[in-house]
Amino acid sequence: MAQSQGHRPATPVSGASVLHGPAVRRWIALAEIVADQTRDLVDVLNVFPVPDADTGTNVLLTLRSASDALHRLGWAADAAQVARAAADGAVRGARGNSGLLVSQALAAFADVCADTPDPAGLRPVELVHAYETMADTTWAAVSRPVAGTLLSVARDAATAARAALEEATASSPATLSVIAAAAAFGSQESVVETAGLGHGPVDAGGAAFMLLLTCLSDTIDAVQDADPGAAPELRQGDEDADEHAPYTAVARQMLTDLAKGGVPHGVGPEPLGMSTGEFEVMYLLEATAVQAGQLRRDLERIGDSVGVVGTPDALGVGLYQVHVHTDTPRAALPHAGRARQICIHHLHPTALVTSTDEPPSPWGPLVSDPTGHVVSFERLAARRAERKAKSVRMHPSQAAAPRPAPAQAPHLAVRSRQSGVGVIACTRAPGLIEQLARTGAVVVLHPERDGIIRAAVDLGLGRVIVLPCDSECAAHAHEAARFLAARSSVSRVRGAVEPAPVPGESVQLLVCDTDDEARVLAAAVAVAGRAEDLTTMAGRAGRAAIELRTLALSGTDAEADAVVSALDAALRPEDELTTVILGRDAMPDVGALVAEAVTHYGERVLGDPDAIEVVIHAGGQARPDVLLALE
User: Fold this and answer.
1) Which of 188, 287, 319, 588 falls 20 to 30 Å from 383 in CA-CA distance?
2) How crowded is residue 389: how many other Cβ atoms within 10 Å of its Cβ?
3) Residue 402 pLDDT more than 60?
């Protein structure tokens, strides 16, 4: 992380009656430190809604974005300004389902701060209202709320805070400390009650939210009676954070004990509400509140774990973080507003080669294939590997590692993570995102610098190769690489104690020489499931791209007859594969005519109509209208 200087000392908060801006700032600082120190613990707990062991990392990245936003805010800011800046930062940097809900909770907290009679700070009754609003909005943010999760923890904390306020007396008033402690204890009891619900030892999102609330309680206790300058400075990487956060230390120990004695992953029945979507789609959306509401309703029809989180301004326009698990990622893209940082992950890895029938061609039966089927790109890669193995004699030590069988599919992602090398596939073709994501790469649609940086950080790996889809994308990728390298250099300028590495602090990006969609697809398939070092994987991707000859055709050159003529002139007797990627404005009969032309060429020149295989993709890119790739 670029900022290694930590937070400045909190200025004193006068008395225990009001939660001022410096205390809110200190709360976010402490929450970030605790999220960093408990990241691995919370990741281990992560089973629901997808057992991908990333909840701790996602919450850390979300809180880090909130903390970064506060570094750009003046120190004289009041509670409403600090809370709003933190919430906006969290929304921009939210990761995963839990990160999205944490950002929603911080946005709700900011809304309460803004609506108070005195924006300088929160009184006890307003703090109770903040807890209740956080609970209500996080529950409302989820399309299909499930009990025993972060949502229940937020509600139980709010209930405990309200009870503490109502039970107060003149001799025992409800101070900020009493309210915050009640909410923290209520959240701890709620987390314990999530055990045995099929979410692992306890619910990971609920555990992360509990730590956020215990940090608030510890912050209030630390600053309520502080003399000027007495509140200790908080720095990222502090080993003695527990010394400043006793409630949080107890909560961490509780989670550690529960993790050791809890039910392991995969034991027992699948819990209610488990996500079944094949892909995770996340992006930032600039839109009106009406457009964001309509998008959420649309997403609820096509997937689960739906979240559209953000706060509109006075004109009704805002920046929203969008998240959904779905089998149809293209349908998750917005029809209104401006989307950016569009990242697609494959949640349930499957083998690239399957035993199912080939997919039906959208253009109907062809002369070369009366059944109306085309050859899938992945199966073609396997066929070519088999053909090469049969035609070339080699020593067994030179043979490539065998591809996993379909039954071994879940291990693909595991091996990729163990190799320490991630893959980012960039594309401007919405029709290719499913194919690319199934290779195990993180797909960035309509790539720009921040989207590539986001994908690199999301991977959580120290070494990543980027497959750019054009020269502009390559420039953005190099810019992202320089940004991450600079941030890594700054983060290493620390004190004597070097903290554990955190996501995104030390990421090496290597940009490959892919310059169109066909080369990106070929390179992504070539490195899928490989457990190799960075240089080897980049070389493998580069060789796969170099082997292709591509023709980009647009305008009159993309008319059916012109495409067939260009293809006929480009084909060579040694070619084995023709890939066709159709753009948004491609003529509807181009794919079928290209397939027939390849069949006629094979029959006329090679004596075999099936000598050259054809892959047709409806890419939907703006340019070129037709992309041909020959290999």
Assistant:
1) 588
2) 13
3) no
